[in-house]
Amino acid sequence: MNQHIQNKIQDLKKAAKISPTSATPVSRNFCDEDSLGKVIRTKNDAEHFMSELNAIYKRSK
């Protein structure tokens, strides 16, 4: 492995040990934040949505 990368990994490990707070990943649930995520949950839902969107686009031409 590249020496620079190994050094960087060691530095990050040291920083993690010194850090007073535990590092926890931030959990994001985009389904709750995005209105489309509330409606489109499956591939079938997405295909239905896109077909409706394409129909609207064609009518607007």
Computed structural class: mainly alpha
Helix-residue proportion: over 70%
How far apart are the termini? Answer: 56 Å
Number of H- or I-type helical stretches: 4
- What is the residue-averaged pLDDT? 78
Strand content: under 5%
Overall morphology: elongated
Region (Disordered): 1-25
Describe the structure.
The protein has 61 residues and is mainly α. It has a domain at 31-61. Helices cover 70% and strands 0% of the residues. The longest helix has 18 residues, at 43-60. The mean pLDDT is 78.
Task: List the main descriptive attributes of the protein structure presented here.
single chain; 61 residues; mainly alpha; 4 helices; elongated
How are the SSEs placed, and which strands pair?
Blueprint (H helix, E strand, L loop, with lengths): L2 H16 L11 H4 L1 H5 L3 H18 L1
In a nutshell, what does this entry contain?
By secondary structure, the protein is mostly helical. The chain has helices spanning 3-18, 30-33, 35-39, 43-60.
